[in-house]
Design a protein that fits this description.
Elements lengths: L1 E4 L9 E7 L6 E2 L4 E6 L4 E5 L4 E6 L6 E3 L3 E6 L1 H9 L48 H10 L17 H11 L7 H4 L5 H11 L10 H16 L2 E9 L1 H10 L4 H4 L6 H14 L5 E3 L6 E3 L5 E3 L1 E2 L4 E2 L2 E2 L7 H17 L12 E5 L18 E5 L3 E7 L2 E15 L5 H15 L2 H5 L2
Parallel strand pairs: 12-16, 16-17
Antiparallel strand pairs: 1-8, 2-4, 2-7, 3-6, 4-5, 6-8, 9-19, 10-11, 12-15, 13-14, 17-19, 18-19
Helix pairs in contact: 2-3, 9-10, 9-11
Amino acid sequence: MFEFRFPDIGEGIHEGVLLRWFVKAGDSVKEGDSLCEMETDKVNAELPAPAAGVVKEVRGKVGDTINVGDVLVVIQTAEDKSNAVAGVKGTKPVDEGNAGVVGELEVSDELMTTSDEGLPPDDNKDKAIKVLATPVARKMAYDLGIEIEGVMGTGPSGRVMKADIQRAFEVKQGKDIVPDEAKETIKTPSESATAISVEKGLEESIKLSILRKTIARKMTESMYTIPHTVCYQDIDITNLVAYRESVKNIFIEEKGFSITYLPFIIKAIVLALKDYPRFNSQLSADGEALIVKKYYDIGIAVDTNDGLMVPVIKAADKKSLLELMEDSVRLSNGARGKSLKLEELKGSTFTITNFGAVGASFGAPIINYPEVAILGIGKIEQKAVVINNEIAVRWILPISLAFDHRVVDGGDAGRLLKAFERYIKEPDALLLR
């Protein structure tokens, strides 16, 4: 029998939600046929059958959370049938540990040896025996600093479960362990008050989506890892507003969209990054070197119904304003529809977030780790300013730059923003670059 497992598709994806089945037990499938659709924090993906055969079993119901490595489908292949006829025993499942990108899942041709889970250790083995544990338990142990080898598992064949890691963590913290059967009857005053509030409809418990949990993890990682500092600046873009007004509807019939300010902003920040390349970099893992990127893949934060996503405009420095506009529209729509490919959601070297799109004037954005900086765009508004000792009404763009103070200083940030201001204030010059 062939056990098809939820593959590791990269980018730190550990779990997914089962959206729908395309097959059921008894169905015949060809290699490449869609088996099911999974929702991850980055994409919705149809998982293809890696081999032809008959579906003997499907595991999981729609809405279930599936961990990487969990068996989804058991397929009986033609080889299984021929082995059965010939009297061959012990057909072994294919190892799918190296499955690749969604839509192009690679399956190893090597056979995996029969599992020895639950069997006593072989004294003749000269290698350490790997602790049995679910992927979620392993990650939880890593996050909490628990050595999983010392945790007694309560799952099948002694497998370490999430609850086991939680108990080990509580012991490490010096907390008393309450038996599971007693937990249902023992409640603290706050728990009792919460229960009463829920019963009266005063509170609602909403399960976090995979994307929301990933955002929380990524933001926490960024804030705890990077010493954030933020610079703010107002830029007079009256000339840009006038130019954009004159061209915004040129491509409505041909392309189906109006020209926004975003392509101008992308073009201007790329030029500024070329002037100050330390902002288009990342710190090495050991903190001993700065890796400066000679390419400009710009992430654009997109507000979706499920949460914030950051698709990436590749090679932004090589694209015209119209191409940047087309890419931003396509990627934004794809992010909201969760139809983007995984490679379109990774690899950014610098990120832009536009909180002005929801009416906010200023904000202090969080850096998209491991990048060095992020540019925040506020709401463009008319304001009274002093020009040559006289008050004038001008269109003002408020911006904020959050940067990694380990890599760059306030003076560097000020110079980058001045370069950005110089480019964004003259749209005619942008067209020639």
